[in-house]
Design a protein that fits this description.
single chain; alpha/beta; Uracil-DNA Glycosylase, subunit E; three-stranded antiparallel β-sheet; 9 helices; 34% helix
Length: 268
């Protein structure tokens, strides 16, 4: 017997979008999609490729507009699917008991650092807790972002003082793919139910921006490619660079060349 928990409207929409994409995704992309589904509390067997029945179930939940609740496996009130006996092992879908998200896990991103002279936009996923607390980008000491900026723009001297003023002086804008999300701690792996920023409107309002740098392959695959499909690489130069996060196993000196190439338009 397969038991499905109740999801919020936002989660249902995200799950449906991911399941639809999974139908035609590459093997590598399917693995990433399954990981995102697990973050949302949905565990799908790798053997389930199309997921049409599951999409129907989630759409029914969305239509019912019910409050999020966990369906008890032992009660008769649960939303259940009874697969054929031969499908019990291959097409099983299970959930773990989910704990309600606390307000502390609702993370809101920062306002963009941008002005009328900005020509390059650097996009991350969502600021870490330290950055949110300080209302400033890339505050974690393990993040190499400001070290890279000092190498490229500041004669290797540490960027000090007003970092926003520094970044804007070099015609760079900073923002993130997500406006807000449910996340425990600062790790991207814990992000759930993200709400994207309105990037299309942002770019229309800042027409001098013609280069977009996505800070990390994971950010590109998990957020940029999903939420911003309307952003054409024919209109913008889109670079994906190694993440500046300390979690990325690459030395500072090995990250410099690709960042230098991506920022070549504003490096004097």
């Amino acid at each position: 017997m397969t038991v499905i928990k109740k999801f919020t409207d936002t989660e249902c929409k995200e799950i449906i979008k991911l399941l639809e994409e999974k139908k035609y995704a590459t093997k590598t992309r399917k693995k990433a999609i399954r990981a995102k589904l697990r973050k949302l509390g949905l565990y799908v067997s790798e053997h389930v490729e199309k997921g049409d029945d599951l999409i129907t179930l989630i759409k029914k939940q969305l239509k019912s507009n019910s409050q999020r609740s966990i369906v008890d496996k032992k009660t008769a009130d649960s939303v259940q699917v009874k697969p054929n006996r031969q499908d019990l092992t291959e097409n099983s879908i299970t959930t773990e008991t989910a704990q309600p998200m606390s307000d502390a896990n609702t993370k809101n991103g920062l306002d963009a650092w941008v002005d009328e002279n900005s020509e390059v936009l650097i996009l991350g996923s969502l600021p870490g807790d330290e950055s949110i607390a300080k209302q400033s980008y890339y505050c974690n000491s393990n993040n190499q972002f400001w070290n890279i900026m000092s190498e490229l723009f500041n004669n290797r001297e540490k960027v000090s003082g007003n970092k926003k003023e520094f970044i804007l002086k070099h015609k760079i804008a900073l923002w993130d793919c997500l406006k807000s999300a449910e996340r425990e701690g600062s790790s991207d792996s814990n992000i759930k139910s993200g709400e994207p920023n309105d990037l299309s409107s942002f770019l229309k309002n800042h027409p001098r921006i013609k280069t977009i740098i996505v800070n990390g392959k994971g950010v590109k695959e998990d957020y940029f490619d999903i939420y911003f499909k309307d952003i054409s690489d024919k209109e913008y130069k889109i670079h994906t660079v190694t993440s500046t996060s300390g979690a990325a196993a690459k030395s500072l000196e090995n990250r410099i060349p690709e960042w230098e190439n991506a920022l070549s338009g504003v490096i004097s």
